[in-house]
Amino acid sequence: MIEFPQVNPGADVTVSATLFMTFSRCPDQALGRLHGLYPEESRASFRGGLAHRVFARHLSSGPIVSGQLEQACREEIGAGLNPALGSLGLRPSELTAVIKEVGDLYQRFKTLSAEGFRDAEVFLEEQPVAGVTLRGSVDAVFDAAGGRRLVDWKTGGLYETEEQLAFYALLWALTHRELPAVVEAVSIESGESITTRPTRESVVATAMVVADMVNRLRTSLDVADAELEKTAGPWCRYCPLLSTCREGAAAIKLADS
């Protein structure tokens, strides 16, 4: 249904939804990720990861019984979040506070309708052309009028989600040979949502953007010490390139002043 554009030959590149969003914010930070430079685990990202596991558990297995949320959280940590917890080094009291925050988010989550639910944490992967792999994980898939509704839960605000939603629409179209009817981001914290209805034209446009991104990254990967343009913003605070980036340092100094 969707023909992915041809790209220049080069190193194998895996484009995740996170890498795509990172590139849209700051191409040089995305290049750093391909070189193995990732942000350190943060309390906010750990809390978000744990909350997503709790939401998926609720959808797949039913509501968590009152009084058993802490046990459910600890089981989910043991099932896949122990490395993140270890890198954070949270004290027991700090972990208890995180679990309480997840519990507050879960109370809001339970008010959302699960009508039409089909699956949670749906992993998608496709190799549209040789040497290029696209992958991502959709938080939840629901039936909708005209097809499927893909939902991405946000435990904070809705910031710069349009690129992520566009990427999921492309990846779904490539893996399922059909457009999703709706792709949506929902903030559990605020209740706000962003809803898109992908068209063939919008998905083709996203494919062109991804192909151009792959070409630019491949060109830079072939050149020693190559850099791409840097764009400063809130994302700079946790960027692993911050110590050598004047733009990022200036952005953080301005934000803290």
Question: What topology emerges from the helices and strands here?
Answer:
Layout lengths: L12 E4 H9 L1 H8 L8 H19 L7 H20 L3 H18 L7 E13 L2 E13 L2 E8 L7 H15 L5 E6 L5 E4 L3 H22 L24 H11 L1
Helix pairs in contact: 1-2, 1-6, 3-4, 3-5, 6-7
Structural class by secondary-structure content: alpha/beta
Output the radius of gyration. 19 Å
| Percent in helix | 40-55%
Q: How much strand?
A: 15-25%
CATH class of the domain at 13-19 and 114-213: Alpha Beta
The count of strands amounts to 6
The name CATH uses for the topology of the domain at 13-19 and 114-213 is Lambda Exonuclease, Chain A
The topology string of helices and strands comes to EHHHHHEEEHEEHH
Mean pLDDT: 93
Low-confidence stretches: none
Count of alpha/pi helices:
8
Describe the sheet with the most strands: 6 strands, mixed
Please give the CATH architecture of the domain at 13-19 and 114-213: Alpha-Beta Complex
Key features of this structure:
Lambda Exonuclease, Chain A, 257 residues, 47% helix, 6-stranded mixed β-sheet
Notes on the protein architecture:
The model has no long low-confidence stretch (mean pLDDT 93). The chain has helices spanning 17-25, 27-34, 43-61, 69-88, 92-109, 162-176, 200-221, 246-256; strands at residues 13-16, 117-129, 132-144, 147-154, 182-187, 193-196. Strands 1, 2, 3, 4, 5 and 6 form a 6-stranded mixed β-sheet that branches. By secondary structure, it is an alpha/beta fold. Helix content is 47%, strand content 19%. The relative contact order is 0.19. The chain has a domain at 13-19 and 114-213: Lambda Exonuclease, Chain A.
